[in-house]
Here is the input.
Amino acid sequence: MAIKNSFVNVTTNRLSRNFGGTVAGVADPYLTGYHFIYFAKLPASLPTYSGGLEDGEIKNLLAGACLSVTPPGGTLNKVEYTGLGGVKFSVPGNIDYGNSVSVKFLEFNKLPVFNVMHGWVKMIRDYRTGTSNLEETADGMGYSKSTYAGLMYYWTTAPDAKTVEYFACYDGLFPTKDPQDLFTSDVETVGRLDIEIEFNVDYIWHEDWVKEKCQGYADNIFNIKANVIEQYGNTISSASGS
Here is the structure.
């Protein structure tokens, strides 16, 4: 019911399309900018190539450094037929979804994001040899999709940062670029560095279970937020009293 009520009065203001106020024609617009990601799965060997970061540290780093996400879309291709006199009609042919998702990260001192992405690519194909560093092990887990690819959840929320709206799960992720070309420098320019990485995608999931998973992550982030605010307040209070 809450979802319906967010736009139930759109038809009331079909003329002006002014959905403000508090009584008639109220409808809340969707706002962008409130988004989150979480890599639920990363290659088990990635920490070896990521400058000393552990698996959990990499996941939290990428989640916290995410500035923007460009998800793939789908195109329903059609098959066209020509009738008598050149008249035409069409029927659906096949669905074609993009196979990449782009994520922009804010880089930090000591280059942790670069180290992760550079190490991930190096793990798959070492620039020194052109071969993979994923060797066959005793458990039979050598070079395979399951050992070099990851899985990422992406969701957007209402401005409360908790109510999940758009959601997706991307499986089979691996970076398609070693971002060394971004580290240009000019004495006349001092600025920030954002690292945008295009990831391969094999499967795109947009099902109810994805929303449930994303809502769980959102709830967890919201709880952390509350704890951080409380701890920060206690720290300020203690410092002021000393």
Observations:
- The chain has five helices and nine strands.
